[in-house]
Design a protein that fits this description.
Strand order of the largest sheet of chain A: 1-2-3-4-5-6-7-8
Oligomer: homodimer
Number of helices of chain A: 13
Shape of chain A: globular
Structural class of chain A: alpha/beta
Distance between the termini of chain A: 44 Å
Largest sheet of chain A: 8 strands, parallel, barrel
Helix content of chain A: 40-55%
Chain lengths: ~325, ~325
């Protein structure tokens, strides 16, 4: 199913996935007001975006609903308040973390739900649990993707084995997830080749979700695309955990299909996301995230540094070295 | 001379060029105090940087010395105040624009000067004037590079012809200069291939100077490198005109040669460049620069927008469309 493109042609298999509410929600505990979510939904429809991710289907047994905004849980009724019957070409996505979702209870049969795709996030060590979720969601009528996180740490042989297991499942999309923002374009291309090789065998699609720790999220996304990935995650203004993601406005400006428009997203930046930053919500490239990316490690220490309003980067560099080598 | 590398090996032909004072000087009219320039010089020495560009050798007939800081003119005596006899491995660079430099008068014989390399900046239409400068500088004993600006607008056949003319000159390095920040990694690789093909014939090296309008400056730099470019321009914190440049801290963190260290540059960011931003000096990725990059056009309208402290991006998008199509 994978196809390589070039800089002039349109690839009909491309799917642009706006993950702003979901990954951006990690910056403000999912406390977006309905006006923003509605404006973003309308902008995505106008911009030709193919999927909009509304947040997580998190377990209310594990997480206290008072600690988060509603998009941590994505009740179908809350999505309906934004999209009504969603009589548009934009499909609705939610993410479900393995082990943190009451999927049997909280994910309703597709015919009762506004949701189109369940994106199942897993680490390499919980693939069997992920397969159980995939099978449940597929049986309920959903499209599914499997988002294998922290792929920059994965052993290639383990990854191949995981993709073989997943290949036998009804999942539709294999996702490359560069959680640490550690991949270089050369590695993104190689991973896309590896994923696409397996995807071709099992008739799946391939996606990529990149982080911007080294200012490579956009580059890694389009390079993986050229090597066959077709589901491309991005967020408005790059809003997402830590250094953030591939910017939707960059991706839409790059794609040659005339259905994609950058202007509606520029308006969202002007009216909303730049104000979020003024209000103190933090994301985007900064030195501590660059360092965790260079070290190929979780951005946790950098997020703490940022939350503490520290600016002593040199000291952080020393601390990080100690954390990694301890 | 061009060699391709991979993610594990060291390439001995790599030369990291810090262009902070020169390209960053375009953000503050070259008004850097000596403390900063001296700290940066010391940091570059510690970081293993190969060349440090101090600014332009601009004509004092054309430009009023009262309108700019001294690094617009780079008197040899001013450089000496920073570097003394420069008993280090760091070489000293200056840039000279074709038609804007009194090179015969202002560029002294190498043996009287602290400068090692003269980087000659030209557009495709002034190659013969560039060759005259190259010959003069080479005769005086300098290494030279030719920095062909706005390459994203160049016709490939014209470019090949220019490189053939330059190949016959004593210039040492052919530079790819993405003035508009319009190149995608795929194009950077192709340009590096084209430049390296010519460079191999004439025994030259190839360099790249990228701009960050589409958050691709670092990606384009390392991709061109993998395809044979060896002189790699970068600036601390990406400081440079408009959207800025490839960040030196990203590049140093990527290169595998253990002589390169990122920490001294992190310290300069902490102590200097982040304060420049607080003081109101502007550079870096923003929506208007993204749009001029996507349109493959000069960042001039975006710089005006930024200088006017405007934030109405949607209106700018419409204005830019009109400018380009008028």
């Amino acid at each position: 199913m994978a196809k390589k493109g070039n800089l002039l042609t349109v690839r009909k298999d491309i799917r642009v996935v706006d993950a702003t509410i979901r990954d951006g929600g990690l910056c403000n505990n999912f406390r977006f007001d309905d006006k923003f979510v509605k404006d973003l939904y309308n902008a995505n429809v106008k911009a030709g975006v193919d999927y909009m991710e509304f947040g997580y289907k998190a377990s209310k047994e594990i997480f206290d609903v008072n600690d988060f905004g509603k998009w941590k849980f994505c009740d179908d009724s809350d999505i309906r308040k934004i999209v009504g019957d969603n009589k548009t070409d934009l499909k609705i996505a939610v993410m479900a973390d393995v082990g943190r979702t009451d999927f049997k209870k909280d994910i309703l049969p597709k015919k009762e739900s506004p949701i189109d795709i369940i994106r199942i996030a897993t680490y390499l060590n919980s693939i069997p649990a992920a397969v159980e979720m995939i099978e449940d969601c597929a049986k309920k009528g959903y499209e599914t993707s499997i988002n294998i996180m922290a792929v920059s740490k994965a052993n290639t042989e383990d990854l191949k084995e995981a993709l073989d297991i997943l290949g036998e499942s009804p999942v539709n999309v294999f996702y490359i997830v560069d959680s640490y923002g550690a991949l270089y374009p050369e590695q993104s291309r190689k991973l896309a080749d590896l994923y696409c090789e397996k995807a071709d065998v099992y008739k799946k699609s391939v996606g990529i979700h990149a982080h911007n720790n080294q200012q490579l999220a956009f580059a890694n996304t389009i390079e993986a695309m050229t090597h066959g990935a077709s589901y491309l995650d991005a967020t408005v203004d790059g809003m997402g955990r830590g250094a953030g993601n591939c910017s939707l406005e960059l991706l839409l400006g790059f794609l040659k299909n005339p259905k994609y428009k950058v202007e509606p997203i520029v308006k969202i930046i002007e009216e909303h996301t730049h104000r979020f930053k003024e209000q103190g919500i933090k994301w985007g490239y900064d030195i501590p995230y660059m360092l965790t990316g260079q070290y190929n490690t979780h951005p946790r220490p950098a997020i703490s540094f940022s939350n503490d309003d520290r600016t002593d980067y040199s000291k952080f560099a020393i601390e990080l070295y100690d954390i990694i080598n301890s």
